Amino acid sequence: MNFENYFPLWNDLNIAQKKLISDNLITQNVKKGTIIHNGNLDCTGLLLVKSGQLRTYILSNEGREITLYRLFDMDMCLLSASCIIRSIQFEVTIEAEKDTDLWIIPAEIYKGIMKESAPVANYTNELMATRFSDVMWLIEQIMWKSLDKRVASFLLEETSIEGTNELKITHETIANHLGSHREVITRMLRYFQGEGLVRLSRGKITILDSKRLETLQRS
After folding, report:
1. Distance between CA atoms of 87 and 83, rounded to whole angstroms?
2. Predicted TM-score (pTM) of this structure
């Protein structure tokens, strides 16, 4: 499928705007682990994922990471072009969690079209509101949900994304997603193992009792 089939506003654009995007559209094929956008150092542009998986996270002064949200097929990210909205001062890093094919609409191109087109401006506001809702949900999880419930939720989310109960993931990676320390995550996973919820091996976590994990995350 072509870009026009993925971009939800394509039919709302006029001929000149479609040509402007087509002439300036950037196609990228990025490998797992590639940093696509790095905080205020970049104003990358609007990202549209064709296939793959991206992770958007923030980095503390101490070097700790916490995942804000992830992007999958047909998802769009505007925070990588936050420079087009002056009131937003939000530093995020975007990394490829898997090999990913994506399109980038340069920030200045998108900004110009957004000024001309009411549908694009409205969609941009809706997209930004959705992402900030994701961030607010995350803050609520951190403030009010205990770590065991957050780890259980993360493991269940991973099994859904990967389609398997055998997760090839390190304790360090989980800590980075949840804004915790590797040692704390390791202790929690060992507790889960002792309770018969998971089985741990080098670089892999096998989910043994997803129903009890679901009960734990809801309790």
Report:
1. 9
2. 0.85
Strand order in the sheet with 54-59: 35-38, 93-96, 54-59, 65-71
- Cα–Cα distance between 195 and 100 in angstroms, integer? 37
Tokens of 106: 């340069």
H or E element in which residue 49 lies: strand 46-51
204 forms beta bridges with 201
Give bridge partners of residue 93 from the DSSP assignment: 38, 57
pLDDT of residue 87: 59
Crossing angle (nearest 10°) for helices 182-194 and 171-178: 110
Averages of pLDDT over runs of 10 residues in the chain (219 residues) are 91 96 96 88 85 93 89 90 67 93 94 93 90 89 92 96 96 95 96 97 95 92
Distance CA 107, CA 110 (A): 5
